[in-house]
Design goal:
Distance between the termini: 51 Å
Number of helices: 10
Radius of gyration: 24 Å
Number of strands: 12
Mean pLDDT: 89
Shape: globular
Largest sheet: 7 strands, mixed
Oligomer: single chain
Order of helices and strands: HHHEEHEHEHEEEHEHEEEHEH
Amino acid sequence: MDTEAVRSFVRAAEFGQLQHAADELGVTQQGISKRVAALERELAVRLFTRTARGVELTLDGQAFLPHARSIVAAVDRAVTAVRPGSRALRIDVLGLRSAQAVVLHDYWRSHPETELDVVTLRVDDPHVVAAAVRAGELDASFRTVTDPATLPPDVRMIHAFDSPLELLVGPRHPLAAARTVTPRQLRERRIWVPGIVPRSEWAEFYDQLAAAFDLRIDAAGPNFGTEVLLDALADSADVATLVGSRDRYLWPASHDLRRIPIVDPALVYPLSLMLPETDPHPGLRAIIEHFASLTPIPEPAWLPSWAAAARRSADEIADSRR
């Protein structure tokens, strides 16, 4: 399959105009038409219908478009892979409002010359992400494989930083006026955390947390997104959830939600960074060093069982640079 024909199809679909696609790709409109026609012959389907405004995707074109985009992205990655230092540092985060993204943004604001590509892989299994790091599709990822023995041999995982948890409640919740709460105060309270995926790192975290403090972590119901969760908290007198202290959440002022630190002990989610064992992207060093400047976690603190192993790996990297 002619990958330039696929690229021409993608650009024409995005612009809805063959001429605009031709202008971007530096060819004639006739050249774009010929490429798309050749692609249609190869696929034995029509990808576009012509309209007075330009072109519109057929049903087959709509079905082919996401796959075509993947092909173009894979070709671009293949080209840049043989041009050392030619592409931005690509780091995977769990979400653009997560503590990981917040810390990266803070780093970039201090180092705006850094070419940074922050992405979010829509997968829950950290082993899938480890494979992407191994394949060179990612330079690093904020994911945790809780059993380091199952990591690919050429991928390593280090401790990045810690995210103390806070209780997030609505104004009618019994703990809404508290300045701090303890894990003991959370017993018998409904802590709703929708979207806990079995066998994910956060599923294991919440399993260990619930067992350690006899907490009621409720993952019932589908995850309709952050906004729906925040609406539910604002309307409820008994539902709470847990968020990271560095996570960025926005809600209407009328919700009057409260973020309450958890103390004695602090409940801490350790964030790890997966990266290649050898020849990591040179831009990672400064970011890893930036983690050391972050505010340390409060004491005493509770962390899950896998936290110590990742810390030892991070210390080994630090020692090797001295």
